[in-house]
Batch of 4 targets.
Target 1
Amino acid sequence: MSELQSRVLVATEAIMICAPLTVLLLVREIPAQIRQLTMTPAPETLGIFVSGLFMLAALLCLWRMVVAFTVHGGAALRRVSVHAWAIAALAAALSLRTAFHFMPAAVTQRSWLNEFAWGLPFIVPLLHLSLERWLRRARRPAMPRRRVSRTTD
């Protein structure tokens, strides 16, 4: 697949997966969490709010990577901060962990673990971007080292 096709695919993934998730999280979930936190300031409510903010931060990091790749190509992915990659990867790992181990028990009762499920849909674009970064690095030819000759005058 060419880089142009891959950029179009990432943009499509962002529009189909990340955009609705971001709007839903910003418009519905975070304000509901803030309302809940002001009504009942319990430790569990604070945990729900903090985990929701973490997933929002991870989603914003993913948007940074999507925009960098879509606009500037594969070379731009190497310039994205390692912290952004780490936050997005940690959110994806927590999402998978929650989905496979805690979700059946957490569905019946509202918990801060439920908030990590927000990261499940953006695993697809994150994996795509990770592969693009890894494949671009693997395809890049090694630059020969130039020797600098020292002349003594």
Target 2
Amino acid sequence: MIIAIAFPSRGVCDPAFAVALRLLEIPFFSEDDRYSVVYSAGADTAVARNLLAEKTKDVADYIFFLDDDTLPPINTITKLLSHEKHIIAGLYFAKQEPHFPQIFLRNEEDPTRYDCIENYKKDSLIEVDTCGAGCLLVKTEVFKNLKKPYFKYEPSGEGIPRKGEDFYFCEKAKEAGYKIFCDTSIICKHIGTKYIGPEHWEISRERLIELKKKMGEKKFKEWRKLTYN
């Protein structure tokens, strides 16, 4: 089995990311497995992901996308591989408050929107509709069955927020019949002004509860529509 560890980079990485990437290279894999690190620097994230997918889809069995602002546990790749899924992510949280978990389900009333899975089951394998691609393992077979581009930013419509390139990929993959999963036992730190983790989300969740009480159900829902969550 061949695994490509791929990261789209803005060109300058936090030292903590360099350490995390090096630790991922510790040989957890068997003697029959091989892995390599590939990157695309300075490009738009969607462009970078497309370039990395094209570069690896015919030579690797899996591509592991790791953003240069994401710090995964050292056993992330082997844990994700153990589930034997076509598309599976680790969990991380938004840099900005509220620090929403980056896993989502389609809104039942409005299919153009997504709801953050706030009360996710911890230490579990869960199915999602879309997720952040900052810590994402994809079987390269998926890209062979999707039309290009695999990743793309979509402009916002009236009252509809702009979709990220990861949402675009997840939607195309689901249309092609693939399921998307997240292993919530894999907790990554997200590099912002500080290293964002689940403890920051817990604080944000308490603030959201208080805000909902002050605003009331109706106003709170309208406020939430300003984001994908």
Target 3
Amino acid sequence: MKPESIVFAVAGAFFGLIVGWVLGSQQANIVRVPAAPVAAVQPAPAGPQGQAGSMPPSQAPKPLDEAQAQSLQAMAAKNPKDADVRAQLGNLYFDAERYQDAAKWYADAFALDPKNANVSTDLGVSYYYMNQPDRALQQFQQSLSIDPRHAKTMLNQGIVLAFGKQDLSGAVASWEKLVQVAPNSPEADTARKALQGLKSAHPNVGAPTGTPNPGA
């Protein structure tokens, strides 16, 4: 995954809006294709090879570089066992928000390199943006079977649980595990912000059944 990745691509007030939407509505389809609720505010899973998977509402997707796509496809045709070039194609199509094409190339790359947790997670993020949260979560499980400490997978797992499945308790569990196993990672920093926001607004989220609300 690319080192410049900042998962979520949100902070401060923007993150607060996201938390507010989850707690306030906990409904509606949040996948960004073709539109997102609440003035298009939406979380961005860690995108292709770690790039942030969402853009501000006013920003158009990056145009597909057709020449580069054709060049990479030619390389892929000449090298049927080259997983890296297929992952590059996945990145290219993901950046252009052509998620079905991206998923196709990520799946091809993962079939050739089934121990690559990065590509597996990129594939899962693509499924999420294709409005297939269950399939995304299944793919994240494959990533974690490869690398149980894969930070971006755990963060994305929490995002999809919260925003794709409205399972806030499940999201809390994913993010708490991330903070435990990779406490010094940038993903853990984002998870802490998510946990703080959710628990501040909804203290019982993630609490064991029967635990009293201290604010009650």
Target 4
Amino acid sequence: MQALEAPNLTFALEPASQALFEEMMPLLEANHDETEWAKDITLNPDWDAYLQLEAAGLLRVFTARVDEQLVGYAVFTVSSGIHHKQCLQAVHDIMFIAREHRGTGLRLIRFADAELEAEGTQIIFHSVKVSHDYSPILKRLGYEHVDTIWARRVSHGS
């Protein structure tokens, strides 16, 4: 897979691996601190589940790097739709760009969209947090508001 390059900035589709997860962890922690709705629930990614999705060919991890240092990521699961099995769909799991590189987000989404479309994906879904709303970027890219998610805490265990 060819990476899109700009001065010092590269985008790539990278295979999920323990090494990549370790590299992502500081950004995941910053993501959790900045955007998590239930901040009292400890960040504890299920890396084995991600590796299983990768092994099954269902995971896409898109990265943004400056001088090879990870500055952002967008993670999707890709599979046939449950309601439309003939339709390959990408569902956004998580996306984050380090604060000092926020201008990179639009380009990362464009890169991920192009890669997903090239592999035959027909629909791409993004879940956007109210506290970290990047809907204007998605609208600019032709996305439509099609769903709203509501949440309610029923337990306060960790």
